[in-house]
Amino acid sequence: MSRINVPEWPWRAVHGLAEERSIRLWLVGGAVRDIVMRRPVHDWDFAVDRSVLALARSVGDALGGFFFPLDEERGTARVVLKTREESGLVLDFARLRGPSLEADLAGRDFTINAMAVADGGELVDPLGGKADLDAGRIRVTHRQALSDDPVRLLRAARLEAELDFHTEVQTEAWIREYAPLLAEPAPERVRDELVRGLAVPDPAGFVRRVDDLKLLVHIVPDLVALKGIVQSPPHRFDVWEHTLCVVETLDGIVATLTGLPLRSRSPERAGVPAGAWGALIRRLGQFGGVIEEHLAATVCDRRDRLLLLRLGALFHDIGKPQTQSKGNEQRIHFYGHESEGARAAASRMRALRFSRDEVLRVRTVVQAHLRPAQLARENSVTRRAIYRYFRDTGDVGVDAVLLSLADHLATWGPELRGKRWARRLDAAELLLYHYFERPEQTVHPQVPVDGHDLIDALGLKPGPEVGRLLDLLREAVAAGEVETRQEALDLARKSAE
User: In the predicted model, is pLDDT for residue 392 greater than 60?
Assistant: First the structure.
């Protein structure tokens, strides 16, 4: 029997508390897999033979963590320990699923997750998980494991992408066979596997693989509907291929500006000329630090703005099938696809039980993804236009700038026109400059009067008219047309007449 080196903390402390109470306890699942692979362990899973909740509570008390009973009837509980990470370290405790440890492991999803560590570091591996780890192979413990919990179908694709493994042939065949069952689990569980897959080094590749396994149509059918939707030049791909190219290119933009590792393994698919990346860093590299901080902000649970921006990139053109038309010269148009896409994206995200804030962010970025390009086509971008842009988009306006740039590069690829790209960068630089460096002047201007001042000076009654005038004044301040209290009152008086 082989041994593995388990990190002393929190393993020793937890095992010691169990031993004091004569409770048998094993480290199981993904934590064992990650230790064997020498990867960081963030979530620790323990199988316990009895008194699960009492043990978990004592662990929480002893280690200064927070105890949460998850399912008292089934004997599951969670302890979250404080760490430097915002999410903390998660310890999950569960009663053995079966009469023995071996029975518990046999009921798990994949062999690489069906190993355990006993006291002393002995590896318990009845299903050959270590051999599959060494071979880089995803293999289901048994056929029924997939039908017992259909979320495991999607998990296989996520593990492939996350670990850079391949799925064993028989397991892959069963996944395709059981694909329709993915419509059955709670949407929250499907959502969690999906977003973990989108956080892997190659999110576009993950989406392709999910589609290849016949799973995507049961999660986001709107994306599958993009296949075969032809676009006129300068587009080179149908909407499906273009969408995946945008996701890849977006990662290239984020990596170039922030210095973060390039996440996509195939950014060359867009065929963007090398000079375009150089121009990008010269013009927008000054914002790299604040963009990195902006995208790292958590919106809900462990889901950050970068993850939601990737979702926005996936959804940015899902309104095209419903809005396709042909003009007099047989050019294909998609008038209003951003509005239709925003509605469809919001609907799909609500169905997957994303939070209200997450739905709003993705809806906004899809709705606004054309606006930076529209500004770039103007002779000049005024402060008034910048104010209106961020008034309508809020901080999501930053995300829409990045998505718009990715959309442009993915569309033109090797045929990218230098002057056109320069105008895009001009508009992007101006928007980001005002958002990050002049927010009080342009994005959130301070009006020198308030509603009470308007009521007193103009003899108004409280109501919508006061709100309208304050909006007018904010825009005038942002445009540089109003600075003083008297100028504000004069403009308000003139508008109210």
Answer: yes
Write out pLDDT tens, residues 208-241.
Answer: 999 999 999 999 999 999 999 999 999 999 999 9
Alpha carbon of 442 to those of 33, 62, 476, 478: distances in Å? 51, 52, 10, 4
Instruction: Give domain 136-218's CATH number out of 3.50.50.60, 1.10.3720.10, 3.40.47.10, 1.10.110.30.
Output: 1.10.110.30
Query: CA nearest 234: which of 66, 360, 409?
Result: 409
Q: Where do the H-state alpha helices sit in 95-128?
A: 101-106
Count of CB atoms within 10 A of residue 85's CB?
9
**How far, in Å, CA of 49 to CA of 65, rounded?**
22
Note the pLDDT tens digit of each residue in 103-115: 999 999 999 999 9
Can you tell me the distance from the alpha carbon of 213 to that of 451, in angstroms, rounded to the nearest whole number? 59
What CATH number should be reported for the domain whose range is 1-135? 3.30.460.10
At 206, list the tokens.
């993950």
Query: Would you place residue 460 in the very low, low, confident or very high pLDDT band (cuts 50, 70, 90)?
Result: confident
pLDDT tens digit string along 171-185?
A: 999 999 999 999 999
Beta-sheet strand order (sheet of 25-28) = 66-71, 76-81, 89-95, 43-48, 25-28, 116-117, 123-124
Question: How buried is residue 401: exposed, middle or buried, by Cβ count under 10 Å (0-12/13-18/19+)?
Answer: buried
H or E segment and range at residue 94? strand 89-95
DSSP class of residue 302?
T
Are 436 and 429 in contact, with CB atoms under 8 Å apart? no
Say if CB 340 and CB 317 are below 8 A apart.
no
Write out the two tokens for 42.
Answer: 């963030």
> Which parts of 199-227 fold into alpha helices (H)?
203-212, 221-224
326: β partners: 332
Pick from 324-328, 375-379, 468-472: least confident: 324-328
Rounded Cα distance, 291 and 257, in Å: 8
Domain borders along the chain are 1-135, 136-218, 220-443, 451-496
Tokens at residue 496, please?
A: 């109210």
Separation between Cα atoms, residue 125 and residue 114, nearest integer Å: 7
Q: How far is 428 from 280, CA to CA, in rounded Å?
A: 10
Verify cis geometry, omega within 30 degrees of 0, for the bond prior to 234. yes
Read off the pTM: 0.92
Nearest to 310 by CA among 389, 368, 366: 366
Q: Is the dihedral of CA 111, 112, 118, 123 positive or negative?
A: positive
